Amino acid sequence: MRTPDGVRVSPARLRAAGGELRRAGRELADGLRRAGQPLAGAASGCPGWVAAADAVEAARAWRDLLDDLAGQVDTLGRAFATAADGYASCDERAAERTGGVVRW
Amino acid sequence: VNGPAAPPGFRQVLGFQGGPLRLAADAWGALADQARRCADAMVAPVRSAEESWDGLAARVAVRRAGRLHRTVDTTWPPLRSLQEALGTLADGGDRLRGQAWDLVSRARAAGVSIDLDGRVTPAGAALDLAGAAMAAFRREVSDVLAGAARLDQQVRLRLADHAPWTGGRSRAFVARASVPAPGSDPALVHRWWSGLEPAGRRFLIMTHPGLVGGLHGVPVHVRDQANRIGLARARQRLGDRLADLVRRGREVTRDRERARLPLTLRRAQVAELAVAGERRAVEGKLAALDLLERELSGPAPGHRRSYLLELDTSGDGQVVLALGNPDRSDHVLAYVPGAGSALPGLASGLDRTRRMAGDTAAAAPHESTAVVYWLGYDAPDSLVDATSSRYAGAAAGDLRRFSEGLRTTHTGEGAHTTFVGHSYGSTVIGRTAVGGLRADDVVFVGSPGAAAGSATELDIDGDPTRHVWSTTALSDPVRLASRRAAMAGPPALTSPWLRAVLAHLPDQVHGRDPSHPDFGGRVFDADLSSGHSGYWDRGNTARVSIARIAVGRYGDVHR
């Protein structure tokens, strides 16, 4: 779809791109879930070692950050897909309205 | 990270179990891979959106996507560092536990009791034990405790260095001009790197991975992070080039089919051949990079992971890959391959390296050995090229700095380091060692000469008369590179005609044969069936001996 004022979009490609981004975000979130247990249990073999306790805390902080990033990637993908749907429905509505006015 | 806290006591050292830490280290590694894959997976959809979408919303969305991609892409290097830090804690803690239990049992045998708090007291009949002996045990306990406190603190600092940053910011500008030039003294590089802030280090890894990845003196795990970024970029670049070549190939084929005049036809044929040749070369390199990627992803059995220390895809390509971390290992065995080695032939070099990793683990199951595939030089393409010392001369500086870098970045007191060269690789090692090589042992296998007249010309850390080793199988045609050895060889290799030819050749191609007793090194056996390339075949005595030299079991070498 192209308009003279510079708006150009392929809703299908945009939707596909959104899907890929969502998949990337989901996979990162899955990786985080898988890593959860071993990271939380890092200090279980060495009580009294402060570095091991720090490692568990570092894991918690990193999980928060990565969880947030995975969510942002997913949200971005959803935004792409929503934009694609919006462009497509806008086009359809315009077509309907135009079809209602123009009679040949 | 918590504030100051009590260091681990003797009880904590005795009870240390590194297993859960290793599992956590593997989880950090897997997470780093996942974060990198996420960043990589964002590239194509964002590019697709950029190409197919214009307008205000497009500009906003693409800008936001770019920012998010950069943030995700900066997460995985620190995750790798955390993997490394936990591995260091697991290895160091297990080693200290071993020392502590050994101390307890030696003390018990001497009639001394060491309790869980590390208190040393005479036990039973040994009440009259000399004060000096008691003091010695107390000193050993305090050494173990000091080692534990150092390890604990060192790992805490590294964890703090790689804490997640707020707001997704990990950047701190470091001027490119302040980065030491390639080939700088590794000790100087190490001092410079140690003086950088963590954010500055991250900035350099992400923005100049090629510079950081190639610097001897930067810790191995950091070079690995930088070179993994280089690997991803090289794959992208070669993939794009391949797509261009496929397109160009179709064009030149069409030109050839349409050509009417002989001259135009000839030109099109030449162009078609050139495109096909470059396409094969690019495909070969891409296949090697795929292999590298597989080797680098995920922990290998025994929690040994691989580290990419150098990667250059220009020309024939160069690569240095370590199985296990040389900075944290008890032993390092670096293998330098010979003529014909190039990035596209990585599979066979890597296979040999893996065999040596298995052999050294079997030779010293309770010690760690990192085995390095060192193709950090432009190897001769053919046997004719291999008669030139030019390639060895060009490689010497980098191999020397590599050996110095290993000494500089080792986290302990330095690994026992062995360099093994096969064929022309032995010439490279010899040529380097003449000017100085930081090696405890050097091993020449199927050598056409080690660029020296005798072992004593080789400047290594060990005594060259005891730590220069060599083997050449009777069936190895490389013996022809030494006139004297060839003339003493089996009749099949030394016909009268060949003897006549050899008599007119200089004594050796690259100096005296290191497997000849006159060279002054220690010669060890190889199976008769070795030929030139069979030294690492299953069961070959040479292969077993190489592993034993690498772990310092000199008395068990087959001689």
How would you summarize what this structure contains?
Chain A is mainly alpha-helical and 104 residues long. Chain A has two helices and one strand; from the N terminus they run βαα.
Task: Please give a structural write-up.
- The complex is a heterodimer of chains A (104) and B (559).
- With 104 residues, chain A is an all-alpha fold.
- Chain A has helices at 11-40, 50-101; one strand at 8-9.
- Chain B starts with 9 loop residues before the first helix and ends in a 9-residue tail after the last helix.
- Chain B has an 8-stranded mixed beta sheet. In chain B, strands 2-3 form a two-stranded antiparallel ribbon.
- Chain B has 559 residues and is an alpha/beta fold.
- Helix content of chain B is 53%, strand content 9%.
- The model of chain B is unreliable at 166-171 (pLDDT under 50).
- Chain B is flat and about 110 Å long.
- The interface between A and B is large, with 55 and 66 residues.
- Strand 1 of chain A pairs antiparallel with strand 1 (53-54) of chain B, so a sheet runs across the interface.
Q: How large, in whole angstroms, is the Cα Rg of chain A?
A: 23 Å
The largest pleated sheet of chain B is described as: 8 strands, mixed
- Give the N-to-C terminal Cα separation of chain A: 23 Å
Proportion of residues in β-strands of chain B? 5-15%
Q: What is the straight-line distance between the termini of chain B? A: 55 Å
* Unreliable residue stretches of chain B: 166-171
Q: What is the overall silhouette of chain B?
A: flat
Percent in helix of chain B: 40-55%
Structural class of chain A: mainly alpha
Q: Helicity range of the residues of chain A?
A: over 70%
The dominant shape of chain A is rod-shaped
Helix count of chain A, per DSSP?
A: 2
Pattern of helices and strands of chain A = EHH
Side by side, the strands of the main sheet of chain B go 4-5-7-6-8-9-10-11
What's the overall average pLDDT of chain A, rounded?
A: 88
Give helix and strand order of chain B, one letter per element, not per position. Answer: HHEHHEEHHHHHHEEEHEHEHEHEHHEH
Largest interface: chains, residues each: A-B, 55 and 66 residues
Alpha-beta content class of chain B: alpha/beta
Q: Could you report the average pLDDT of chain B, rounded to the nearest whole number?
A: 88
Oligomer: heterodimer
- Rounded to an integer in angstroms, the radius of gyration calculated over CA atoms of chain B is 28 Å
